[in-house]
UniProtKB/TrEMBL annotation:
Annotated spans, Disordered: 1-20
Name listed for the protein in its UniProt record: Esterase
Stretches of the chain forming a coiled coil according to its record: none
Transmembrane segments: none
Amino acid sequence: MAGAQNATAPVPPAGAPPTAARAPLTLADFGSFHVGGRDYVVAGQPVKEVRFSANGPLTRVDPNGTFVIGGMYAQYTVPAPQRGRLPLLMWHGGGLTGVTWETTPDGREGWQHFFLRRGWPVYVSDAVERGRAGWTMLPEATGGQPVFLTEDNPYERFRIGDGPGSRARGTTLPGNQFPADPVNYRNFMRQNVPRFTTTDELTLDAYLALLDRVGPSVVMVHSQAGLFGCRAAQERPELVKALVLAEPAAAGDMAKVAAVKGIPMLVLYGDYIDGDARWRTLRANGMQFFEAVRAAGGSVDVVSLPERGIRGNSHMMMMDHNSDQVAGVVQDWLAARGLWA
């Protein structure tokens, strides 16, 4: 009997600490919902016949009518006791989903757990066209075609590998913290999903609907979501009480910087940026916006992790081996602003 139990027991992910090492989490509530979306009408298309299952009958499907597009998924987890004074909303980057925050490729707890363990109510979302959110392949509605990445692309573009061809070589930047061995990097690639570059308006609308539903919150964003976090703060300054930006790939509307002067911002940048022309440009673009916010009277704290002695971080700092150390920088900043009891 013991042998049979061992044979069917789940195998923990590579690198995951034993269950006994993880203190239990007590939850007051958890659940999920969808928000956002709009109607989109299709007309003039031919009726199709579709076989929905093997050996099943042909079924008439009329592609004309009203479709719901642009919905977004959100999962909430509320700890007990609660110490965060506001909900913490986690918004992922391009080609990714809310899994970004939930776990690491080598099986360690992600930032969702880190902040839950410190008493924050956490909302992890899958943005429009990602994960468990609504998906539409109507070109007229999306304005374009989705982009999907090869295995080489994030390895080189996210400052994991040491330049072109590094994925094939299996080489990384010196001291790189991302779990880049073949097994765990493949775990990361399993998370990657197609993304559109033409649905920003739909996505921003869904994030605004999320804020309207949840109410005043701390918003934490990564990469592509830098645009949505800054724009949402500009559109709903009364609902965004603090904004944490992990390597934003874009920022807000320069014409509306005054709208966010009352929202404290923390911006985090990882390592190796000075040696990467693309990331130097993205950082410089972001700094133009953040300097404009400061000039308007706002508070923006920009942290270069290597200047803090936290070295080796890739673009995916919430998945790096030292992810808890980076999260600690965020936690301390939020606590210093009276947002944690």
